[in-house]
Amino acid sequence: MFKFVLHDLGLGFENPNIMLTFVVMKKLIITLFLTCLTLTGQSQTKWALVVGIGPYPQELGWNAIHGDNDIELVCSFLSRIGANHQHIKVLKNEIATKQNIVSAFQWLSKHVAQNDWVYIHLSGHGQRITDLDGDEDDCWDEAFIPYDAQKKYSSAYHGENHLIDDELNEWLTDLRNKIGKSGTLCIVLDACHSGDGTRYEDKESDGTPEEYRRGTNDCFIIPTPTPLERGNRRPIDWLCLSACKSYESNYEYKINDQYFGRLSYAISCVARPQMQTDELIEALNTQYELMPLARNRIQTLSVDVPPCYLETPFVK
Questions:
Q1: CA distance 176 to 112
Q2: C-alpha closest to that of 252 among 242, 243, 262
Q3: Interstrand relation of 140-144 and 184-190 (parallel, antiparallel or unpaired)
Q4: Contact by Cβ (8 Å): 251, 212
């Protein structure tokens, strides 16, 4: 075809300059085509699951906190870094049941693909629960508390609505396998497995509570017939950010007469596009220092991440 076109133009193949130009153009077209295919294969879609719970049903034993206030902060920063709202699943208060959270993970697992960016954010209460598979040295698993999880073991409730870390790790491992090593997976836990999960006795002048803490000192104890052999904790292959160390309490942050999760507020302030993981962690620690705690209380950001991830992008 090209020969006929060239002859029609009166150029012919006998001219070496014309022939050289044709070869160069042909190579350039092929290169551009292959480049487009490569870029298409490396496209990245951002996905997110955001769970926020404030008021829990009183009959389940939990005090009200303000995890639902974190949702707007988180969705705002997700929008800022380019996440499409159609790719963000939000579960708030009574919608954030155990089954709905599991369904949301199934939704993510169905849709994510190689190289995608996946962000999980859980704001609410947390609790230690009896370790049933022996992977915890201290005999306790950690659990996030969905809206329909009861605080204490009973003959009618055995902890089936607790979102235990073992189960969470299974979902995260599944997502990691779906997005591959080129994808990004981050989970943010603005909950706490210690503290009293209640309001301090000290109050403001108008009688409102001065501080709120997330979590509880009351462990969820499941009777076990025999002691378990202790094993090793499963390694993680993602970035995990927790609002506090395991031995600290998670104090909500008050600003403009509203309460937010300390980590949720911090990440909404500092996260930006084209940010490296180590930059994010440094920025979060700096932001924590700018958010004062009452009476010299201590709360420290907890980071669990493989060292090789620190120099990789948090957001591409």
A1: 10
A2: 262
A3: unpaired
A4: yes
| Entry pTM | 0.81
Give the least confident one: 35-49, 132-146, 176-190, 191-205. 191-205
Q: Select from 173, 66, 191 the least CA-distant residue to 122.
A: 191
**Domains of the chain, CATH where assigned:** 46-315 (3.40.50.1460)
| 89 or 226, which is more confident | 89
Angle at 209 between CA 206 and CA 212, to 5 degrees: 155
Instruction: Return the percent helix, strand and coil in the chain, to nearest 5.
Output: 35, 20, 45
How does DSSP assign 63-100, residue by residue?
PP--GGGHHHHHHHHHHHTT--GGGEEEEEGGG--HHH
pLDDT at 29 over 60: no
Whether residue 143 contacts residue 126, with contact meaning beta carbons closer than 8 Å, is answered with yes
CB–CB of 186/239 below 8 Å?
yes
Whole-number Å distance between alpha carbons of 309 and 311: 6
Q: What is the 3-state secondary structure (H, E, C) of 141-170?
A: EEEECCCCCCCCCCCCCCCCCCEEHHHHHH
Does pLDDT of 133 surpass 80? no
Highest mean pLDDT among 84-98, 179-193, 237-251: 84-98
- If we measure between CA atoms, which residue out of 259, 251, 260, 231 comes closest to residue 299? 251
Task: With CA atoms as reference, report the closest residue to 74 among 57, 89, 96, 95.
Answer: 89
Strands 213-214 and 250-251: antiparallel
- What average pLDDT does this structure show over 245-265? 93
Residue 228 one-letter amino acid: L
For β-strands 140-144 and 253-255, DSSP reports them as unpaired
